[in-house]
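Hi D.,

Good news: the full-assembly prediction came through. Inputs first.
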Amino acid sequence: MSLLTVENLRTYYFTERGPVKAVDGVSFSVDKGESLGIAGESGCGKSTVAFSIMRLIKGGRIVGGRITLGGTPLLNMPIRDFRRIRWERISLVSQAAMGGLNPVYRIGDQIVEAITTHTKSKKKEAWKRAEELLRQVEVDPSRAKNYPHELSGGMRQRAMIAMALALNPELVIADEPTTALDVVTQAQVLKIMRGLQRELNVSIILISHDLSILGQTCDRIIIMYAGKIVEMGDVQALFREPQHPYTKALLSSFPDIKSESRTLTGLPGSPPDLIDPPIGCRFYPRCPQVQDICKAKEPTMIEVVPKHYVACHQVKGAS
Amino acid sequence: MPGSPLYAIAGGIKLTPEARQALIERFGLDASIQEQFWRYFAGVFRGDLGVSFYHYPRAVTAVVMDALPWTLLIIGSSLILQVIIGYFAGVTAGWKPGSKTDSISQTFSLTLLAAPIFWLGMIFLFVFSFQLGWFPLAGAQTAAATYSSTFGYVGDIIRHAALPIVAFTISRYAMYQLVLRNTMVTTLKEQYILTAEAKGLSENRIKYRHAARNSLLPMITMFGVSLVMVVGASVYIETVFSYPGLGLLLYNGVLNRDYPLVQGCFLGFAVLIVVANFIVDMVYMYLDPRIRY
Amino acid sequence: MLKKSNLIEFWRVYKQRKTAVFGLVIVAVFVVAVILAPYLAPYDPYLRVGARFEAPSLEHLLGTNDIGNDVLSELLYGGRISLMFGFVAASIIVMSGSVIGLVSGFLGGVVDEILMRITDIVLTLPRLPLMILMAAFLGPGIGTMLFVYCVVGWGTLARQVRSQVLSVKESTFVEASKAMGGGNIHIMASHILPNIIGIIIANAVMEVMFAILTEAGLSFLGLGDPTHKSWGVMLYFAQRQGAFIQQAWWVIFPPGMAIALIGSAFNFIGAALNDLFALKLGKR
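Then the structure:
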């Protein structure tokens, strides 16, 4: 059962030099209780997709597409009504290290704010709930009285997760939640996220450039490049048998501590200018398997193997 | 200091040698400089700032204490108003930077700040006191008046204080508006503002409780720094409106070579500024939890 | 830094801000007007050419003052004094403040400590009373005003320049010292100077405005020279000689308006310069 569907989403940022086509025709869905990862390099549009779902695009606009949550279309909803969707049904976990928490209010107060804005709870009840939430993310509830700067990086991130879960949302979008944390803390936070996700049956969209954490934490994964999805499918299958040249390149650029040593391959070149992207497949300038057709026509998404989709001319579709 | 104190005291009258000697003894001018300094210093602690030359035989402390409350009234009230108005104007402008409201208010503010304080005062005085007669022409209260009630007295004081306060406020509020506006623009780029919006908070809540609240610090800092200029402002405003505050007292004191009084005024201002700075520090600590001890 | 291409690019961005261009135009107009005062002014401002407080008319576009001088002429000639004071005072302050800031930031150590202590003192003392006090001893006049203003006014610029020097020092020093041990001083000169020029120019513009305002204020308080009537002196006489009672708005409004106009012009220019230089530095 699909919880969230995104159809042909197009979001552009408007700059002096012209519109930047950050997300240009992206379609996918998220099931209830599922954990979906979105991967790609900087500027590929993954964060833009996330913020589009929450209608938080600054300096740009969603110019096309449909997004539905549990059947309800989101994009045309008046903003006043949409504010009720925010946090009650979809919430956001951003990087606490980058200032996701307001430094002048206590952690507890910030969680309470979310609760009292959306429900009729009194401050006292809300505070109790905040403490309980903190307990769930393995943070001592008495820390609710602290300010963000008084907590460690890992604690702050977990506090943000607690805050995101405050209203029992159906979907949580986590935008690079562990990027600024050290590996040990990262593992801890991810473990808690995974645990809570299963326990509460919450859907998660996890955005990261780090394939390894997506591999650990997600059920399905989307690989994005230059504003488009290039490959999508079950995470284990995709990692074992990547189809798209870009995915292959991404995977081979990650060192694997267990396998025998090999040379890491990077990708030559850099992502295209999204104001004026290349005609045809956007990856063709860097693709090791490029053919003439790639420069002329944009590849469509085909289902290679059940539930495994690729957009590439070089991949034969399942017959 | 040039200009013999005797000259000031005597008010220009030629002194006989006996009179000279008497005055010297009376004012302790025969003691050495160190002695005079220490005597003054000790006197300050006892609340004795000497005797005014010009207002002889009134003590400096008395003269200063007559004037100080008036300055506190108009300058103090005005400063508070400046901050409040600057706050709201700045938050509004900063919330939508680059918009028409923002550009217009920026331009307006920069123009306002370029106008001399005393000239703005003169305009207000001219239009509202002389032309329209809505406000009195000078002073802090109507001389030799009796009032039926305290209410009448307070009303009179307000009528006299209103124009100086308005003039000073309008002249300087834009300083705070500009700082706040610029800080807001930076603050709005922070991640927690995005989080706040994602939380589905109302626009006003984000604007004031998140954005504005985090933009206050530079404005408060500027307030602290600009306190020094308050002395100058009070001289100008009180001169234009003939308002008997510390600024006017200081100014006249200098012109009359009334050194003890001038020193007393400096001291008075110093105390006001120190106290104000202290309050600013307290406010600062309250606003920023990161600097609590 | 002063290459032609840089200047053209600079102008292109500057032009985008309408207020900044407007400011430049106003300043230009004022400067030209006061330079051409002898040709533009209908009368000699020190000659009695009309009755007291004559209202504006075709003969006297801005009316006459308390002793019958033509106000428009006063305004034009007075502008010379006010503007010249502004530019001269600002130049002195910019030069002294920059040197102090540069030396302090560059040399660091004891020199920096001492200079900064002095700067602190200068910055914390109330300026106007000090100026009035000093002027009381030195007697009124333009020279006195110039002197007292420059003595108390160099602090902010010194501070600004110093902090800019320090931040440049931080950023290039390490690279420079690694790359070319002995050429340090030369590199400092060729790296630091270009970077502080921006902040000096932006501040210089504001300093002109402050100087003009302060001169007006001091003159208004009676420290100016009645034989060299600046705009401030005009207001001094307006206050003292009963312009209010006579309802002579034409004596009160114009001088202040002139100050406000050229002051805001400088404000616009200064604000634009500040933004531009901040952008340039941000791009590094």
